[in-house]
Amino acid sequence: IIPNITEVMHFCHKIKIPIIASKLTILTDHTEAPIGLGNLGKLRPFLQKEGFREGSWGHDLFDTLPKIDFSIRKWSLSPFYQTELDHLLTALDCDTVILCGFTTNGVVETSAREAVGRNVQVVTLTDCVTSYSETLHEASLTNLGAFGQIITSKEWMQNHPEMVNT
């Protein structure tokens, strides 16, 4: 999915659509022990020891991706819960989110549900999302159809008003 996401990011830069990345962030105390994991620590026990700490490989975006405009630290599957995302979307006068990322059945579907609940339209780019399981991925794409448009990145870019009107 990385080449497709990269192409979408370049397209967004070209037509001046802000790129927002939400990054799971595990906070640690002075002893490097995780704090605030809650249920996530039970579901993903490895997070007790490593992963998604600021400045670590699991937290940083791939070096090959184009520059993002805004980075949101999130504490769970939701990029909205206890983050500044809702405020940022309002400040940017954004009425639509284009979803890319991992996992389709986790963060992507959670993002879509919460965006719709905030009266934000959702477009999920099918070739820019994935999961650990193809079965879960496909089931989530079906679910995501209830929350917005499901389309490939190529179709989205070709049909974007900036391209149609040129």
Automatic annotation (TrEMBL):
UniProt key word Lipid metabolism: no
Pfam families: Isochorismatase (PF00857)
Molecular function (Gene Ontology), one example: hydrolase activity
Matches recorded under InterPro entries: Isochorismatase-like_dom, Isochorismatase-like_hydrls, Isochorismatase-like_sf
Annotated ranges, domain Isochorismatase-like: 1-154
UniProt KW keywords: Hydrolase
Keyword Hydrolase (UniProt): yes
PANTHER family: ISOCHORISMATASE-LIKE DOMAIN-CONTAINING PROTEIN, PEROXYUREIDOACRYLATE/UREIDOACRYLATE AMIDOHYDROLASE-RELATED
Protein's name in the database: Isochorismatase-like domain-containing protein
Organism: marine sediment metagenome
Source organism phylogeny: unclassified sequences, metagenomes, ecological metagenomes
